[in-house]
Amino acid sequence: MDRKLVGVDLGGTTIKFAILTDSGDVQQKWSVETNILDEGSHIVPDIIESINHHLSLYNMDKSQFIGIGMGTPGTVDRDAGTVVGAYNLNWKTTQHVRDEVEAGTGIKFTMDNDANVAGLGERWKGAGENGQDVSFVTLGTGIGGGLIAGGELLHGTAGAAGEIGHVTVEPNGYLCTCGKRGCLEQYASATGVVHVARDMAEEFSGDSELKRQTDDGQDITSKLVFDLAKGGDALAIRVVDKVSYYLGLALGNLANTLNPESIVIGGGVSAAGDFLLNQVNHYFQEFTFTTVRNSTSLKLARLGNDAGVIGAASLALSFE
Ligand SMILES: [Zn+2]
């Protein structure tokens, strides 16, 4: 009998679900809004209800499932099956997610941090091509990462391994939400790109649409910066070059440390595609030493929004 997996990608606005085969093919997908009211107390019951409802809708039985895997914001205690400090879910106190989901569905449950899980997804069915050593970085409103070394996800002693967003790329640079200065996240996330653009616009004196819009006080987005750079805007080109330098520096040093087969770049900012990839790669070559330069490659993510549910489901393979 072919056995199946459930993947859950818990986010601040939606909860995405998928039913997959044990080889990672998505068979069903759905999502529900995340109800963060009442300190997020509806979230776990909603997850249980939604899984049970869809299993009966598809005439499936819990015995057909190897397990449920979930990616979540916040700090995960994998042994205890709990999450704490997921502020975008209003989860301030410890949530006993595993025990509740297992009791409510009758299916075994496991979870990990959302960026780790997206990394597992890209590694398994995406750009990582199921390699043993794959690093993943997501460039969104923040920057997260997932590191797979020797086939295993790295967690670190306090669960903070893979926090690529807080690698220092500019000593004494922009202040970060983590309290430190000069973190990659402040330069190469969607908001970081805009911050760099605004600062460079102040000092730029040439002809530039980006400068005009910035000086006008218009809302600048990272997408606008990349689009203008692609169109030849002199300031936007400089901004993208600077952002690419920081990314090349951080990812180069990551490669010098872990020497993965590939570093997969995902998240909203990576929508800039090969244009971004090529420029980051230029600096990546500069900041890596020969063995690493010849064996680690930068790639764009392939799974988009599905990386989370696919990677989450792969966690449950440990129950096989
Ligand atoms: Zn930081």
UniProtKB/TrEMBL annotation:
Enzyme class at the top of the EC tree: transferase
EC numbers for this chain: 2.7.1.2
GO biological process: one example: glycolytic process
Molecular-function GO term, any one: glucokinase activity
Entries under SUPFAM superfamilies matching the protein: Actin-like ATPase domain
GO cellular component terms given for this protein: cytoplasm
InterPro entries found in the cross-reference section: ATPase_NBD, ROK, ROK_cs, ROK_glcA
Gene3D superfamilies xref list: 3.30.420.40
Keywords assigned: ATP-binding, Kinase, Nucleotide-binding, Transferase
Family: Belongs to the ROK (NagC/XylR) family.
PANTHER family assigned: BIFUNCTIONAL UDP-N-ACETYLGLUCOSAMINE 2-EPIMERASE_N-ACETYLMANNOSAMINE KINASE, ROK (REPRESSOR, ORF, KINASE) FAMILY
Protein name: Glucokinase
Annotated organism of origin: Pediococcus damnosus
